[in-house]
Amino acid sequence: MLVIAVVVAFPLYWMMLGAVKPAGEIESSEPRPWTLSPTLDSFRRVLGQQEFGRYFLNSLLVAVTVVVASALIAFLAATAVTRFRFRFRTTLLIMFLAAQMVPVEALAIPLFFLMRDFGQLNTLGALILPHIAFSLPFAIWMLRGFVKAVPEALEEAAYLDGASRTRFLWQILFPLVLPGLIATSVFSFISAWNDFLFAKSFIISDISRSTLPMALLVFYKPDDPDWGGVMAASTVMTIPVLVFFVLVQRRLVSGLGGAVKD
Amino acid sequence: MSVAHTPARGRGGWTPWLYLAPALVVLAGLLVYPIYQLGLISFLEYTQAQVSGGEPTTFRGFGNYAELFGDTEFWQVLLATVVFAAACVVSTLAVGCALAVLLTRVRALPRLALMLAALGAWATPAITGSTVWLFLFDPDFGPVNRVLGLGDHSWTYGRYSAFALVLLEVVWCSFPFVMVTVYAGIRAVPSEVLEAAALDGASQWRIWRSVLAPMLRPILVVVTIQSVIWDFKVFTQIYVMTNGGGIAGQNLVLNVYAYQKAFASSQYSLGSAIGVVMLLILLVITLGYLRLLRRQGEEL
User: Fold this and answer.
1) Which fold has domain B47-295?
2) Does residue B3 register a pLDDT over 50?
3) Residues B20, A190: C-beta atoms closer than 8 Å
4) Suppose B46 and one of B37, B96, B108, B269 were both cysteines; which one would form an S-S bond, judging by CB atoms 3.0 to 4.6 Å apart?
């Protein structure tokens, strides 16, 4: 079991090791799984690269905006489909399910022209808007379980006490669903943070609007990659997601279980 | 799932639509409308000349599709996509389920270790995962060739070894979802059932096949479909690891093929036609999935 865990963790270990190894040890034909002289040279090279900090902030801005916007929109929509009965409810649910299957990548072409027509090419909006749309269906689908778990008796009690619908929604339901909302956010965060295709297609001429994946590729030239730089940049890019994951992992497991069983 | 529909759920009038409005507006503008556009462009003559306004846009009917289906490269890419996705799905499910079963049978410490390792793999962005795996299998400086004694064998040179390398990376970063979900499912199975099976002398494989798999069927269906959808759409890994589709396009899959057609050679209408083909294939899979769910009597 531990052996399997080691094998699974090895690529990540190798990434971080590669990030701190001195250049001479990386470019050696005798790769060793340790280093006796760790150095921050690669990190310095990456962070010293023009605008790397800017790319990082761009990525962060895109991901955070997507997470907050899609969480709020998905929360409202999930409440509508779980706590109300109305015509077309089932139809809508099926459509949300079907929408998850749409290959985002295939839509890069029409979205490219849409963004061009609205003058959004080369802006962060071109990355934010599509990701909100693409993370919504899954977020709504997953949040259903969390919203459903809040007893209806609580809702009736709130109304009996004279609370308005809006008050119940934001002051009672929202805090109760918040843990689930955060777990769901992991997925929208990842899809926005990891996005490579849109970043590559929509940010074409103004590189000051680029995001991390593009910065990483600066160091990765297929013929002569700067492995130390690539590994350091990869480490910088992976750590925020890793932290997010570890923080919400418990919720994530129960949330997935709930979403799947419902 | 037998929810008693209390009166509170019935009331509301326009309220649910008010709550749904933001979601519907966003989805209509950025999902439904682009799908319509994708279909439209696939019927037009739309290349760099039309984009820049040099030539008028003309309607080609099924011309783009005829061109696509007449191209042997398209069929090769389609076949490669299906085989590659199938291989990824089968491997991911096998690894994920096996480790989920294993997780239930070990002590807390190794379980935590594997969970954390899997979480790390899951959290790794596709692009960094791709570069790290390339580094691991690097012909000059990678540890894998060293350990296996392969000298400077290049994994990305041959068609099949390049696909195999991408497959390993895809399995590595997608098995944790299967493992965690199936593990959560197994935990929900009453332990008496498993104990009874063990007392009857059933082997591990037998317990999985005759007891767990049938009980976990709904979960297995979900993770299978999710994996099919994800693996059918692999883009970043192929693009980065094989440098845009491999030598002479030997490692192209539909997604990368559409991208190359549209953005590298400005044949937007052909790229769109490929996109429509992908959309239709995934639609068929989705419909099959919905029928399965329905047959299981799930209430939405």
Assistant:
1) MetI-like fold (1.10.3720)
2) no
3) no
4) B269
What is the domain class of A51-226+236-261 according to CATH?
Answer: mainly alpha
The string of pLDDT tens digits covering residues B140-198 is: 777 877 777 777 777 877 888 899 999 999 999 999 989 988 888 888 788 888 888 88
Chain A positions in Cβ-Cβ contact with residue B283 (cut-off 8 Å)? 98, 101
CA distance A44 to chain B (A): 19
Q: Inter-chain contact B282–A94, Cβ cutoff 8 Å?
A: no
**Would you list the DSSP string of chain B?**
------HHHH--TTHHHHHHHHHHHHHIIIIIHHHHHHHHHTTEE-SHHHHTTSS--EE-TTHHHHHHHT-HHHHHHHHHHHHHHHHHHHHHHHHHHHHHHHHTTS-HHHHHHHHHHHHHHHHS-HHHHHHHHHHHT-TTT-HHHHHHT-TT--TTTSHHHHHHHHHHHHHHHHHHHHHHHHHHHHHHS-HHHHHHHHHTT--HHHHIIIIIHHHTHHHHHHHHHHHHHHHHT--HHHHHHTTTTSGGGTT--HHHHHHIIIIIT--HHHHHHHHHHHHHHHHHHHHHHHHHHHHTT---
Q: What pLDDT digit, counting tens, does each position of A44-66 carry? A: 777 777 678 888 889 999 999 99
Of A5, A98, A238, which is closest to B114 when you measure between CB atoms? Answer: A5
Average pLDDT across chain B, whole number: 84
Q: Compute the mean pLDDT over every residue in chain A, rounded to the nearest whole number.
A: 82
- Please report the ipTM that was assigned to this predicted complex: 0.82
Q: Could A244 and B123 be called an inter-chain contact, meaning their C-beta atoms sit closer than 8 Å?
A: yes
Interchain contact A164–B (C-beta under 8 A): no
Does the beta-carbon distance from B16 to A86 stay under 8 Å? yes
Inform me whether the pLDDT recorded for B7 exceeds 60: no
**Per-domain residue ranges for chain A?**
51-226+236-261
Domain boundaries, chain B: 47-295
Which chain A residue has its CA at the smallest distance from B188's CA?
A257
Q: What is the pLDDT of residue A69?
A: 95
Residue A41: per-residue pLDDT: 75
